[in-house]
Amino acid sequence: MPDPTKRPGGTFCAWLALAACVTAPVVAVGEGSAAPQAAPAVRQDAPAAAAPQPEQIPFPLRFGVRSEMLARKQAVLNQVVLVPDGATYLDEIRQWTIDRRWPVLIEDDHFTPLFLQAFAPERVFRRASVGAGPSGDALAAAIESAAAHAWVPGAASMKEALAARGVPSIGVVLVDPADPAWPAAVALAAGRGQVLASLTGNWGAPNDQLDPDRTTALCDAVRDAVAATGLAWNGLGDEVDAVTICRSMAGKGMPGERVEFASPFGPAKRGEPIATTDAVCRIAEGRTPRRWAVAGWIFGSEARSAYAAMCSLFLVQRSTWLNDCPAYPSNAGARQYEVGEATALLKKAAFAAESIRFAPGGISSWRQRAAAGWGPDLEFINSMGNLDTFTILQDQDTGVREIPAITRPMGLHMIHSFSLAAPESPICVGARWLDHGVFAYVGSVHEPMLNAFVPPALVAQRIAVGVPLLVAGRWLEGEGDRCWRVQTIGDPLWTPSPGVLRGAVVAAEPRDGLVDVKAAAIEAIKAMNAAPTGANAIAAMRCVGRLGKPEFAGTVWANAMKAGVAKESAPTALMPLFLWRNLDAVAQAIELIDAPTLSQLDLLWTLAAAPLEAGQVANRATIETLVRHPRVPRAGHDMGTVRANAIRVLGNDAYVAMNREVLLGLSAEERAAVIEGLK
């Protein structure tokens, strides 16, 4: 690959590490992989250059420069506004201005407490619903209007608003108003200053794989939607360097015969896919394929998509965990992917970075970290395995049920085969991370070979100089940037930063129609104490659980339990109790929920696995809840984890009776799998 420090138009001294892109080796990640081969060392001798003019800066750095320029103009109010629905969300986004903005969340019981824990606002406000919102073409117009209004009141479109402000576009956000991910589109268009465009039609679900004709059609549809904006789009460094697809689509496609889909490793085997986000935004010049933009992808519910956008726009990243994989071969090619140098680079960039290498028996320390709180803002994980397993120990796979529920919103760079092969499957490694609150993710849809990934040191150096994670995770130059299997989920303009690229935080601004949640919590607690009812308990918990003070939620929960009125508030209480790290309280809440979801059960088992392994769970009611609630599918994992501790607390006969009842409640297929696993 060519040396990116010598791109036409200027050089940039912080871009030196990209020289290691040259002739990267073929190294496999998944099971049955061939041993990697040596690779050339990272260049350290390129000359420094004078500070470039903006038009001379390599295009990935333009994102950071642009973010810094916007941050200087856009102060962040130290508040979060919670809204009950999409229509009210749109109306609240319209309240943003060119110099004032703040996080807006569609309130839910999982992502809302997680975001509040990280953002820690001075004030939390809640709005009543504005009523039913528009749909179809009317919703599309409302999305465009709300985003544009935040830049220029009365502007008809984001393109018009940006032109009026004299601000060049840097990206396009594609949206389908019929898809629930549209809240991310309006926020990222307004927050980043990007043009909105429509991408409608049925392009499959995230777990799907498109055939060659449909893959080609989707890529053409993305290209045509961007071209229809009238922006210059067909080269890196022009008006469209980032494309954010905010809607459901197939995560995988088949390459077919088009030049744009040529891989660096030769043709894919029949039936083997490429990543959709790597297939789009490509063009052919004769027989030469090239990339014209970097794509990101946001999908999911209205609440989750709004959360993803707000994490990207407003959170500061301080802590970084970097996990090495001891199962990689000990040779030069694999050592290029170790995280030591990346850790040092991030520390120099003011991140609190920590290298982690799990020794034999490391599942215990993995579980202990999870129980104590899995809370980095950014994580690098080097692993091996498959869709449902990952390796953190030498010669030992770990199951998907060990993916921990997290305590802070997180970006993730995961070098691992198949981690995003089925991003909505309950047995997929990447799906569990996303469901828990990861909002930006570089991963793989299939076995990509190790060198399909950019080594952590290069990703870290790019991030350190202001390159977004999803851009830093692409090779960007030469053969390694051919279409392949690395998937990029999230906002392609999200740049992890300890604060350098964020605007000034100014005091909250109450206004008519905003209810202060803290004041409402005081009144709700008084009402519950005076008249302990289920309705009063959930009203109190809905307020207290949104204050980012989980210990307060614990007190309200204890009072509701004592009064026997906790059932209605259990789903709302669960995440604050988890953030409080109280296993017994989380188990109480799970027991009161009629049909706990997988994500709710993940909160319970994240806290429980380490103390169960150590035989430290003594509360009989908690043990009984754990025995009754293994996660399905793969219930055998949890049933094995709880068994020894349960026998000690319950006695063998009582445990066997409870376990038999649980087995009989499973499907025949799941029951057979559990029994087979016990042999």
Task: Please give a structural write-up.
It is a single chain. The chain is of the alpha/beta class and 679 residues long. Among the domains are: 4-61 and 316-501, Rossmann fold (3-Layer(aba) Sandwich), CATH 3.40.50; 596-679, no CATH class. Helices cover 40% and strands 14% of the residues. The chain contains 25 helices and 24 strands. The strands form seven sheets. Strands 16-15-17-20-21-22 form a six-stranded mixed sheet, with helices on both faces. It has a four-stranded mixed sheet with strand order 4-2-5-24. Strands 7-6-9-14 form a four-stranded parallel sheet, sandwiched between helices. The termini are far apart.
Global Rg: 25 Å
Question: What is the overall number of helices?
Answer: 25
Give the total of beta strands: 24
Secondary-structure class: alpha/beta
Largest β sheet strand count, sense and barrel closure: 6 strands, mixed
Shape: globular
Strand order of the largest sheet: 16-15-17-20-21-22
CATH class of one domain: Alpha Beta
Straight-line N-to-C gap: 52 Å
Mean pLDDT: 89
CATH arch. level architecture of one domain:
3-Layer(aba) Sandwich
The CATH topology annotation of one domain reads as Rossmann fold
The helix content, as a percent range, equals: 25-40%
Uncertain residue ranges: 1-54
DSSP strand content: 5-15%
